[in-house]
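A further point concerns the way the authors explain their paired sequence and structure data. Showing the layout once, in full, would remove most of the difficulty. For illustration, here is how one protein appears when written out as sequence plus structure tokens:
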Amino acid sequence: MSLVSNAFLLFVLAAVILYYLVPQKIKWVILLIFSYLYYLSGNAKYVLFILFSTLVTYGFALGIEKLRAKEASVKVQKRLLVVGILMNLGMLGLVKYTGFFVENINLLFHLDMKGLEILFPLGISFFTFQSTGYLMDVYWKRIEAERNIFKYALFVSFFPQLLQGPIGRYERLAAQLYQPHTFQLHNISFGLQRIIWGYAKKMIIADWAGVFADAIWGDLDRFNGIALFGLVFYGIQLYADFSGAMDVVIGIGNLFGIQLDENFQRPYFATSMADFWKRWHITLGEWMMNYVFYPVSLSKWMMKFAKWSKKKFGRKNGRIVPIALADLIVFFLVGIWHGASWKYVMYGLLNGGIIAFSELMGGTYRKWRTALHIKGDEAWYHVFAIVRTFILVNLRWFFDRSDTLGQGFYMIRQAFTHFAPAQILEISAGSGGTAFVPWAILIIAVGCIVMVTVGAFQEKGYHIRESLARLPLPVTVCIYILLLVMIGMFGSTAAPRGFIYAQF
């Protein structure tokens, strides 16, 4: 059930109405029922995957606590943790990466082995990470294991965030899911406001930009003179699509009085790649930081490597090299989390490589700024840092959008060797055809100006949502209606598109 379908909107409406009608004690049960109904609507047989992940992490978390109560050694508890993680993430690996490994083994050894033909279960990358994080938090004594299997099942499956995040932390989300929430007009208003704004970004900006990006990437020989435009359009599409998705998801949570974690905070205003990843898919970055970066950095083998680095590169640089290595490991995993393909490996290593290089060059950069009398807080330097980061971020999209690694390199070559902007007029823009191209580009441009302006005000600390909420109710309703009318008038007339991150 796509988040942009009428069926989904009716589904959410029914869930909200029932949630506020039933007695307080069973409100969380309504959320659980609707969460599983939502998952079943995609493909009933794949509910086994989310059940497996839920039961494994639930059982192993209780097992770890029982061992702890019996004063079992940390080593024994750790073994149980590792088995639980391997079972949970092993399911993800089996489904998501077996075909990739088989394909590459066939190419390497000229074989013809058959891979597993399993349709990719909905949201598996999200709920396996969320449940794995819960299991590790129980092991580290950050939280106590949940005794009620049904309540824990709700934490893993809460339907607004199931397909594209945010990846929830038990300590922040669970209590909100289980406690009853009374009907408050403020929550409904905030929720609707964000949902409509999210759909506006998705259907007006992202979907129109997607028309051009898909056309260019879909016929590279014909549109080889506007490969750079394809990159720009895809950068706009992905930004508006992902931010719009998070607005819709978090807005739906607001309808139930639940505040999901922010997952997207104006990443195109970032001043470095590290800053970008603190703003883009925030919960994935936090997950990698908490459950990969820190464990790797504090592991015995990394400690030995750190000692070797200090001897080899000196005390100062020796501290940085292990951090750079940990960054590369983290972003390699970020890359393959997005998909089983060499293009995603390249995408992850590019991110990690840039951040690792920045870590290694940090001292040199500071010397350059000192020599050039740049303090780093100048307005022009801030703009320069944003533009520099924006260019680096968008260049990576060549690999993210391309079907293969080779296609990504081909698009880079075309972008910097061929330029024939008139080719853009040959693209069919929805039902209006090629004649509508200028108007479609105008819609994208105006939409981007509005989106960037709103973002700039938020970046300065203006609380726009709160300001809108303080307006008289009739004015607020008129604003919502105006946004809905604009979606109807200016939304893409091409075939409906699902949210991009739902495929991961």
